[in-house]
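Deviations from the work plan: none for this task. Representative record:
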Amino acid sequence: MSALRFAKTTSGLRPRRSILLTVIMGLLAIYALLPLFWLFVNSTKTQAALFSTFGLWFGGEFALFDNIVQTLTYDDGEFVRWLGNTLLYVVVGAGGATALATLAGYGLAKFDFPGRRAVFAVVLGAVAVPGTALAVPTFLMFSQLGLTNTPWAIILPSLISPFGLYLIWVYAVDSVPTELLEAARIDGAGEFRTFFTISSRLLAPGFVTVLLFAIVATWNNYFLPLIMLSDPAWYPLTVGLNQWNAQATGVGAQPIYNLVITGSLLTIIPIVVAFLFLQRYWQSGLSAGSVKQ
Amino acid sequence: MNSTPRRRILGAVAGLALAGLALAGCSAPSGGTGGGTGSADDLDAALEEGGELTYWSWTPSAEAQVAAFEEAYPNVDVELVNAGTNTEEYTKLQNAIKAGSGAPDVVQIEYYALPQFALSDSLVDLSQYGFGELEDQYSPGTWGSVTVGDAIYGLPQDSGPMALFYNKTVFDEFGLEVPTTWDEYVAAAEQLHTADPTKYITNDTGDAGFATSMIWQAGGKPFQVEGTEVTIDLADEGVQKWTGVWNQLVENDLVASVPGWTDEWFRALGDGTIATLVTGAWMPGVLQASVPEASGDWAVAPIPTYDGEPATAENGGGGQSVTSQSENPALAAAFLRWLNSDPASIEIFLESGGFPATTDDLSDPEFVGVESEYFGGQKINEVLTQASEEVVEGWQYLPFQTYANSIFGDTVGQAYADKRDLAEGLAEWQEQLVAYGNEQGFTVAE
């Protein structure tokens, strides 16, 4: 019945074409895609061709594969090490952050206990504090603990995601019916069993949304590792690429712009792939709670 | 591809963090140095005994030098870390100093940044190890840059006496004479830009290192430091001489507004858009490695002067120091001594294209007489080593020069951008520096 009505209303609202909107849409698409296009075009050039050819079109010999090989092998495969580090930080940091946020968000949404409002206030406050503002105090604290210049200095702060917690909380309130939990309890399921067999499945779209946020945040994390790490052996890709870029400066400059560009291209590929694979969860996660069922 | 704006913003953020952390590090310098006491004999004993060291450096020759050192002294294990290029490394070093741990034993520091770390007791005074005897090995300008009074806070590695690098092909094409005075330089700038509006005599968007070196060459002494007493006068005679010349170029749009060290800049050096560079003697290595397409175009001449009397300044260059956090300062000092005075190490440095600070090498006929293929067979080191003897004496940097340089763009850089009198920008720079210095616990006079 409701499906029928839904079909009717959409046919009544047949989308009208608007030339103006299409043009604006096209311009925005170009605006968004141009840097990517530039990145791809220039990663096919040699260092010399970068300086001597037009920036927005191919020129010189096609050196993409050569650049990729050089990027992966430069300075004993530094780039591969950084890629490994980034993956470590993403898997442990973003994965852990999502797991913790899911457990905590669900708990706060579905269990009533004294102090819940206080926790709510703290979490909301934490969402408002930018990570950059906390980087320096975190650095001083970690250096007292002797944890700077170790992977823990990146992983531990990444595990905290107040925003993810908040998102799961809001999502859990609507998507996990309390009646269902009560039914499970009456049937004798323990809280953990209820969570893992029932709630976690209902929470999946929210979980994936938070996971995507956390992956993107950890993958692009720059300022925290910049401050925490001084040994390139633990750098993530962001800081490492910037170090390569900075090589072009000053006495003894060794510009390797072609490798910086190719490295940047390689760096964004995994995150693009992650988005393409997870986007359907992402979409349903975004609209969660927008319509009351 | 030009990521400079982003890097600038990030740099500014990092700079803010540095400024915050630097508060304690820089305030109220007190007497005494860290690292205990020792003597020259301790160094040989330490090398014999061995141990582990951490060395921060971004020089291209560092890896080969460390390998050669470990071979000569198998008991010593040196871990080389590239903790970032110049300001990025200083931020990390300052953070580690503030945190009380995490600093390396030996660290590369450029001359302009050295006073900041020396005066905050972050570096070991090496005179206790008999480093005073090494003074004769280095050119006076570089030795002066690593010493504060009787204390020695590092050993010079390279130097950058300034010279005029010019694109001979462009000069010949437009019939320009190589300028020997700054008036001739301005005239050449006008002639070139009028003949071909796409070409400029040089580029400058406001670079603190360049401006301070130019003031140095003009005989200015805007920064005077005596313990915690600092005097800043960015309108002294030398400063006025420089702005008198440079204003003509900036106000009349005769310099290209291409920021240094960007891809655009390297390209402009290659295609003749930028016809000259007034910069340090380390530039040939950069040109050779990064602007290969201009091979045969460039030549070197002495830096133009104000009155025909030879005078130049140092631009860039630096050395290595031992940090107070080092747990084995004698061994660290021994490594440093080898690094910057042992012929085996300096040879590796020269092979990598570096310009030395050691007088033996600066006067070595083999080094002086080498014909550079890139420079069309010119014996460029004749000009450059001559320049190293003509550096104006008495220059001092501020004990918070890295901060000063970080705000140069916001003050003097604005005067560049608006194409107005640089003296106005310098006055604003001075105002902010005085305020900052006083906040840091210095007594700043104007």
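The radius of gyration of chain A is 24 Å.
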